[in-house]
Amino acid sequence: MIVLGCMDLDYALRFDHPADLTSSSTAEQKAAYEKWERSNRMSLMIMQHSIPESIRGGIPEDKDAKVSRNRFTVLSKIVSMRYKGKGNIREYIMEMSNLVTKLRALKLELSDDKLVHLVLISLPAQFSPFKIKGKMDFK
Question: Which residues, in sequence order, are CB contacts of 77 under 8 Å at separation 6+?
């Protein structure tokens, strides 16, 4: 996202989609619309290129860079989460579940089975018996 800011392409991430142009639109409105469209298009291309292939297919293509950024941010957080053995395991799982709820609000479905899988792979070795039991139940 820093790249977009440096190149002044983050306009579409900072501002909402402008109203569609009409025959009565002013030159200023047309310029703002064109600036937003260019920024949005370039932002989407740069973001698509920066998303790892392993999760690229899990994010549906969108026409709004702000929505894509939000989906990618939440999905990246879920995929990169690791339980470090500090704190309550239940709270950790609830945090992951809350992130899945955020994804669903962004119209990106992540099934409960996938949530269980993400939780299991994020647990350290001390949870190996739980992981094996979970995988057996998972099948």
Answer: 99
d(CA 8, CA 10): 6
The CA-atom distances, in angstroms, between 118 and each of 23, 48, 79, 99, 132 are 51, 23, 7, 12, 14
> Model-level pTM?
0.72
Cβ atoms of 33 and 75 within 8 Å: the answer is: no
Q: What is the DSSP letter of 106?
A: T
Within 8 A by CB and 6+ apart from 85, the residues are 124, 126
Per-residue pLDDT at 101 exceeds 50: yes
Paired tokens of 109: 């479905």
Q: What gap in Å lies between CA 11 and CA 36, rounded to an integer?
A: 6
Tokens for 2, please give them.
């820093």
